[in-house]
Design goal:
Elements lengths: L2 E5 L3 H13 L3 E5 L2 H10 L4 E5 L7 H10 L8 E5 L4 H9 L4 E4 L4 H17 L6 E3 L2 E4 L4 E4 L2 E2 L4 H12 L5 E2 H9 L8 H14 L6 E4 L3 E4 L5
Parallel strand pairs: 1-2, 1-3, 3-4, 4-5
Antiparallel strand pairs: 6-7, 7-8, 8-9, 10-12, 11-12
Helix pairs in contact: 6-7, 6-8
C-alpha cells in the first residue's frame, strides 16, 4: 500500500483529503505544519507528499526546498496544494521541484487523478546511473553536476532538464516534449519557460553549454560530439 503525507493547516481540508486517500486504497497521514512533517519524513519517507503553500511557520515552498536539498528525498514526488492560480506562482512551485500542482478549491476525483498520474510517472522514471558527455558528468542519485573537477550548481528544474537531454542524447526533443518530461503532463506553461531554462543552463555550463543545440522551429538536443 502506497503512503501519502498531506501537509495542510485547514483541518477540514486535511481530513477530507485523508478520507479520500483511505477510500482509494492509500495509507494517508496528515500534518498541520512542516516541522512535524519533516520529522516524519526523516523517520519514514512516504511515496508521495501533498504540500499546501500557505502554512504556519515554514511555507510549502520552504518545505519543498528542504526536501530537494536532501539526497534521500530529492526525488520524492510532491504535489502542491495552492489557492494561488497565477502562472508565476505555478512556475515558482514547479521550478522549486514540485511534480504537479492543484489549485483550491479542488474536487476529490481531480486530486486522486493527479496523484495517480504523478505516481505513474515515478514508476516509469529511468534508473539512476551516471550520465556523461565528455567532461560533463551528472549523478542523478547525488544530484551533482561536474565539469571535470568543477562543480556546477543548478536549480532543481535545470538539473532535471539537463538530465533529460543527456538521457536522450542525440535525439531532438520538442519544447512540448521537454515540458511533458521535465515539468509534467498537467503543466500548461508556455514554450518560453523551456527557452529561459535552456538559456540559464547554457550560461551555468560555460563552454559545455555548446553541447545543447537549438534545432530551429523544433526544439533542442544534446550533441553527440565531444565538447
Amino acid at each position: 500500500m502506497e503512503t501519502i503525507y498531506c501537509v495542510e493547516d485547514d483541518e477540514n481540508i486535511r481530513e477530507l483529503v485523508l478520507y479520500a486517500l483511505s477510500s482509494s486504497g492509500y495509507a494517508g497521514q496528515g500534518f498541520p505544519e512542516g516541522e512535524s512533517f519533516l520529522r516524519a519524513v526523516e523517520h519514514s519517507p512516504p511515496d508521495l507528499a501533498l504540500l499546501d503553500i500557505m502554512l504556519p511557520g515554514q511555507s510549502g515552498l520552504d518545505i519543498l526546498r528542504c526536501l530537494r536539498e536532501e539526497p534521500a528525498t530529492a526525488r520524492l514526488p510532491v504535489i502542491m496544494l495552492t489557492a494561488k492560480t497565477s502562472e508565476y506562482d505555478r512556475v515558482k512551485g514547479l521550478d522549486s521541484g514540485a511534480d504537479d500542482y492543484i489549485s483550491k478549491p479542488f474536487g476529490v476525483m481531480e486530486l486522486l487523478s493527479r496523484i495517480r498520474a504523478v505516481l505513474r510517472r515515478v514508476e516509469k522514471a529511468p534508473a539512476d546511473g551516471l550520465l556523461t558527455a565528455g567532461r560533463l558528468t551528472v549523478d542523478p542519485a547525488r544530484r551533482t553536476v561536474t565539469d571535470g573537477d568543477r562543480a556546477i550548481a543548478l536549480t532543481f528544474k535545470e538539473f532535471e532538464l539537463l538530465a533529460c537531454l543527456l538521457r536522450n542524447r542525440g535525439l531532438v526533443l520538442t519544447r512540448e516534449k521537454l515540458m511533458e518530461l521535465v515539468w509534467g503532463f498537467d503543466f500548461e506553461g508556455e514554450s518560453r519557460t523551456v527557452d529561459m531554462h535552456i538559456k540559464s543552463l547554457r550560461q551555468k555550463l560555460g563552454p559545455l553549454g555548446e553541447l545543447i543545440q537549438t534545432v530551429r522551429g523544433v526544439g533542442y538536443k544534446l550533441s553527440e560530439a565531444q565538447p
